[in-house]
UniProtKB/TrEMBL annotation:
Keywords: ATP-binding, Helicase, Hydrolase, Nucleotide-binding. It comes from the Eukaryota. SUPFAM superfamilies: P-loop containing nucleoside triphosphate hydrolases. It comes from Sesamum angolense. This is ATP-dependent DNA helicase RRM3.
């Protein structure tokens, strides 16, 4: 994932997800993975980054590095509008709404490509909120045809 707005006109903005196609000493050959510029080939150079907080690091320094970080997960909101080969959804807490759950579960190309991990609810003398799992078997059968 890109960490800086390097060229917004060409789709290279903070948060843009990339696929690394080649790694050189001074440049990364990458392909934009999502959005309007999906599939576009680009090169990401090393850039100078300054120490962020002078209170934590009283001696200022600059280092040259690639403005990227590994990105294996994203929020449900970030996934909206994307189609993915495989989707894993970790619901540590109930989703905000049924619409959010729909977005999470509908990002994969097929239902067989979705895995969901839901933690069992705990009761500690309070009402537990949860997302009810309503299964319409006839729809599942139609979806797998």
């Amino acid at each position: 994932m890109l960490l800086r707005n390097s060229n917004p006109i060409e789709g290279l903005c903070n948060g843009t997800r990339l696929i690394c196609r080649g790694l050189g000493e001074k440049v990364i050959h990458a392909e934009i993975a999502t959005g309007h510029f999906k599939g576009k080939q680009t090169f990401i150079p090393r850039i100078p980054l300054e120490s962020p907080d002078k209170r934590q690091c009283p001696i200022p320094f600059t280092r040259t590095q690639f403005p990227v970080k590994l990105c294996f997960a994203m929020t449900i909101n970030k996934a909206q509008g994307q189609t993915l080969d495989f989707v894993g959804v970790y619901l540590r807490e109930p989703v905000f709404s049924h619409g959010q759950l729909y977005v999470a579960l509908s990002r994969a190309k097929t239902g067989n490509s979705v895995k969901v991990l839901i933690q069992p609810p705990t009761v500690e003398d309070k009402v537990v909120t949860f997302t009810r799992n309503v299964v319409y078997k006839e729809i599942l059968h139609l979806a797998n045809q």
